[in-house]
Amino acid sequence: MDDPNLLVGLESGDDAGVYKLSDELAIIQTIDFITPIVDDPYIFGQIAAVNSLSDVYTMGGKPITAMNVVCFPTKTQDISVLGEILRGGLDKLREAGTALVGGHSIEDPELKYGLSVTGVVHPANLITKEGAQIGDKLIITKPLGTGIVSTALKGGKAGEEAVAHITASMITLNKIASELMIEAGAHACTDITGFGLLGHACGMIENSMVGIKINIAAIPVFPEVRGFAEMGLVPGGTHRNREFRFNMIEQANMIGDDIWNILFDPQTSGGLLISISSADADTLLENLHRHGIEDAAIIGEVIEEPRGVITVQE
Ligand code: CO
Ligand code: CO
Ligand code: CO
């Protein structure tokens, strides 16, 4: 239980476990699988793989091996669909420099795909969601709104362009963002997935002595998202996310439901939320932009008071 080599375990609430093998080497282990979010199986495979690799990048690690996790409805879908999904996953593993070493599949009426990923990190470079310091700036690396746009897609409301925007983002590895954040000396990081921006931001400060201030106007969102949110096209998980964390949120001015629904929108294969000293934040932001992560933005800061609370202002 009190294994001193277990650097990050179950209690910490991080998305991956970290175990120290030597003073120079720790392994990061994580597993994620999801149901289809787009119709094209090749693209879905890529999204699921990028999503599964993300928790290693979030902790500053390099993913080295991975195993497929497959639940496939063999009675209702052609096996060629599975071939396309796995091809998408493999292409992203190649891009990440990660070896596929095995996997497991079962028959299931509902299709699911993802990977169990093992990464490596030097213990000194390990980054977790804890460690944000007063005065830090918060940088987000991808726009918000994949949940809202995919809900619009299911409702027949999202056009090709809207889907293309979220797809391009969801198939982008957090690899470069991760490498740049380590180089820049980030203090803390989490990836933005099912709990939405505010849910994951709450996770960063829940056991800490700091608070966060978020500036809504600075948050990048996909172009179609505000319109869909105003139409009430919101996934089921948003409400749960808001209920779960609303006691940690303070609004500096009145904020409408459509905005809350964006701030708590569950993301698939979302970006990183990085806490970094204000002295290094601008350099990191410039580097992110220069490496093609154009939507990266500073969206808030870490403050002393009120601690344990996220203050949101429009
Ligand atoms: Co995860
Ligand atoms: Co995660
Ligand atoms: Co097996």
Spatial arrangement of strands, main beta sheet: 8-11-7-12-9-13-10
Beta-strand proportion: 25-35%
What is the terminal-to-terminal distance? 45 Å
Average pLDDT: 96
Structural class: alpha+beta
Per DSSP E runs of 2 or more residues, the count of β-strands stands at: 13
Number of helices: 10
**SSE series:** EEEHEHEEEHHHEHEHHEHEHEE
Ligand list: cobalt (II) ion
Largest sheet: number of strands, sense, barrel closure: 7 strands, mixed
Task: Tell me roughly what share of residues is in helical segments.
Answer: 25-40%
Shape: globular
- Multimerization status: single chain
Q: Give the low-confidence spans.
A: none
Gyration radius over CA: 19 Å
What does this structure look like?
The chain is of the alpha+beta class and 314 residues long. Helices cover 36% and strands 26% of the residues. It is built from ten helices and 13 strands. The chain has helices at residues 41-58, 79-96, 146-154, 160-170, 175-184, 196-205, 225-230, 236-245, 257-263, 278-290; strands at residues 6-8, 17-22, 25-34, 62-72, 99-107, 112-121, 137-140, 188-191, 211-215, 249-251, 272-276, 297-303, 310-313. The strands form two sheets. It has a seven-stranded mixed beta sheet with strand order 8-11-7-12-9-13-10, with helices on both faces. Strand 4 (62-72), helix 2 and strand 5 form a beta-alpha-beta unit. Helix 1 packs parallel to helix 2, helix 3 (146-154) crosses helix 4 (160-170) and helix 5 runs antiparallel to helix 10 (278-290). The longest helix has 18 residues, at 41-58. The termini are far apart. The model has no long low-confidence stretch (mean pLDDT 96). It binds cobalt (II) ion (3 copies).
